[in-house]
Amino acid sequence: QKAFARHCDAAGGTIFNILPVGSDSGYGIGEDLHGGSDLAARRELFQRLAEVCVVFEGGPSVAEEARTAATRGAHVVPLIRTGGAAAGRFGFPAAALERPLHA
Length: 103
What we know:
two-stranded parallel sheet, two-stranded parallel ribbon, alpha/beta, 4 strands, globular
């Protein structure tokens, strides 16, 4: 995640690290935003805010986050070669695995 954030920052992107209250990303890149008292609350907040959800591997909880994000209209971009949820496992949203019309 840190490497991804570093490269997005270098490309001029805006980086927000959403973390539970009292946590620090330690990235030194972007802005740490705090929401929720624990990881579960942070996940809920992320699922509601994200416009783009880039998925690297992951398990059932990552697939759940992707489903929630996709349901509310976020763009879900799986890096399929990384395996796990990003490759369609654990109930990952099937539509997110298809090439978008604009690609």
